[in-house]
Please model this.
Amino acid sequence: MQPTTHSQKLCIATAGRLRCGRCSRWRLPHSCRAAHARRTGTDAGGVRLGWRRTNTTAIIGDCDSMSQEFLTAHRNIIYKVEEQEYNDLTKATRFCVERGCRRIAYVGATGKREDHTLGNISLLDFYRREMHIAALMATDNGVFLSASGTTELATFAGQQVSIFNLTCSHLEGDGLRWQPYAFAAMWQGTLNEATGESITLHGDGSYMVYGVYE
Model:
């Protein structure tokens, strides 16, 4: 699941509620942990980072959420992308990948609208397959990530874990209270639980994993 290169790590903030400090609380493999020293914002999320005076390195989007005052004040780090085929999250991800980033944490990507929440979570799998990055998405209560094949994740005993099958015809795991399988529906893989300090999943396709912080 994780790239072998020592690539840059980055945090991308979007327009939802920002919980940047919590995403490290799920003990993930080292390559999936965000280095919060570098942050990129997507349009409205970039506006929030900019006014908070965080260490923001770039703001990417179509700029439709930015006032003229903000555009002027942050013109040196704003990169306008006008095409509408992809959303601002993908524009920001592409921008970072083109500059060598391969490990990305997303914050604020699941707030305000449920349809955007579903769309943004599903993009994790697209980014892993098409852009070859290791990414996680921090929410109010836990972390989503996309994986395939065999994946080992650090956990803690009693941690609530959900597994969402995407393309697997065979799926099994170790370290879980209930044995996963190639679920036919999204709800079937929810409400599992880690029994120790790690879980290992084995699948012949792609799947998503969610784990709570505590």
